[in-house]
Recover the amino acids of this structure.
């Protein structure tokens, strides 16, 4: 780690060690030594102890010399290859806003209590079927597709969700196209009929929950004002009670300034039986309420690291905690795809509004910034090309000079468009920490593999 000197009582910049110096390499330290990330190849290489101090010093004052030194030591590649901008990407995943309404009253909700700023409404069956037809018919045999159900609360339109799932499975089978199903739910409306559907079709389920009872009830009340946790707890218990369960159930915690006791939350949600626990910061809320500011993101980063240390400690005893933030980041470091987009939004993945509008993703439903056409007329090619160009990593500033660019890929499109990039230090800080964990765990390949395959 770079040691930051404090002059005249000044407060040290906690993010100085992770801020971009070189676009070609990032130096970091684990418990097992000094390392470099080669930004172009994604390789994590050990730095000889005799050169570690010199490399760190050069990065502080002479980046060009640091890069020459790293290249001479074989730590980084000399060639730089640009990631091309595609003109089109086949859509292989759709999320249907089957219910643009919700029974909860979360004040920070990006969907504005499910209605996206308009009148509450439900998707009609013909719109759902038309969406399935477009997704299935455009996929060649053998190529997997995914159909997701979102809201609002998708179970508020149970009839269409069930009918659409069965219709999609039938159409996909007829074309010999593998199909997967997913749903994001608040967990308060789950019935036995729903559980039978999830089991039959092997759903991937995400339950939105913001902590244990007192915290969740404050942040995610029912419309009546009453807490929702007891209903969520009952729904999750019913999901977990199924023998031979074929579906996966993960928890997604929206991190706000009011629920940053992550260690307690992680422990409680693991005890509830969730297969994965993911913390995601609220960076852009339509109301502006509960958005994370710099000091909140600093605390979030510290809490995530605390969770990471617990996971690593438990791993020494053969236990794998389903802490998704750490697992997904380690997988991303290990695979290192040099991603030019943070996700498939506007490319291989799109959201469908209740009335059949096509949008870049589920967060852009009924938002002109992300409108891409409609299910009847198809994708607007001009808007699609403009999106793929404007959102490509090479056109994101200041991403081109950042060492984390291929791991972050510019961060969430919605948040970047609506609020800019308030979380760059947080993102780099988390990647820096995870690189150290990854480098150390390579000394224990079986433990690393246990996390990568979790």
């Amino acid at each position: 780690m770079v040691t930051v000197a404090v002059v005249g009582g000044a407060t040290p910049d906690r993010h100085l060690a992770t801020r971009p110096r070189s676009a070609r390499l990032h130096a970091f330290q684990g418990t097992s030594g000094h390392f470099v990330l080669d930004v172009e190849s994604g390789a994590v290489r050990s730095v000889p102890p005799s050169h570690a101090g010199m490399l760190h010093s050069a990065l502080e004052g002479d980046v060009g010399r640091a890069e020459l030194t790293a290249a001479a030591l074989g730590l980084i590649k000399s060639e730089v290859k640009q990631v091309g901008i595609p003109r089109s990407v086949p859509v292989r995943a759709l999320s249907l806003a089957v219910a643009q309404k919700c029974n909860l009253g979360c004040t920070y909700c990006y969907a504005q209590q499910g209605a996206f700023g308009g009148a509450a409404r439900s998707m009609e069956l013909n719109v759902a079927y038309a969406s399935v037809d477009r997704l299935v018919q455009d996929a060649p045999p053998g190529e997997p597709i995914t159909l997701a159900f979102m809201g609002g609360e998708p179970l508020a339109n149970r009839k269409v969700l069930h009918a659409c799932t069965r219709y999609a499975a039938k159409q996909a089978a007829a074309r010999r196209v593998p199909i997967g199903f997913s749903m994001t739910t608040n967990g308060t409306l789950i019935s036995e009929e729903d559980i039978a559907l999830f089991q039959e079709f092997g759903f991937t389920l995400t339950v939105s929950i913001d902590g244990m009872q007192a915290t969740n009830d404050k942040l995610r009340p029912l419309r009546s004002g009453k807490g929702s946790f007891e209903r969520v707890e009952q729904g999750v218990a019913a999901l977990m009670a199924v023998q031979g369960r074929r579906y996966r159930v993960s928890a997604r915690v929206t991190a706000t300034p009011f629920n940053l006791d992550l260690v307690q939350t992680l422990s409680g949600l693991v005890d509830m039986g969730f297969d994965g626990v993911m913390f995601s910061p609220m960076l852009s809320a339509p109301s502006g309420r509960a958005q994370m500011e710099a000091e909140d993101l600093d605390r979030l980063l510290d809490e995530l690291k605390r969770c990471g240390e617990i996971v690593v400690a438990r791993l020494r005893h053969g236990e794998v905690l389903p802490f998704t933030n750490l697992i997904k980041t380690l997988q991303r470091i290990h695979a290192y795809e040099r991603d030019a987009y943070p996700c498939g939004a506007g490319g291989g993945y799109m959201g469908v509004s209740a009335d059949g509008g096509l949008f870049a993703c589920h967060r852009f439903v009924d938002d002109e910034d992300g409108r891409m056409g409609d299910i009847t007329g198809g994708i607007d090619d001009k808007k699609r090309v403009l999106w793929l160009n404007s959102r490509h990593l090479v056109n994101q500033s200041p991403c081109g000079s950042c060492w984390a660019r291929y791991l972050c890929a510019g961060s969430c499109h919605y948040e970047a468009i609506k609020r800019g990039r308030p979380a760059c230090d947080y993102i780099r800080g988390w990647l820096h920490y995870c690189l150290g964990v990854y480098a150390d765990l390579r000394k224990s390949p079986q433990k690393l593999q246990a996390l990568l395959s979790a």
Notes: Residues 93-292 form a domain with the TIM Barrel fold (CATH 3.20.20.70).
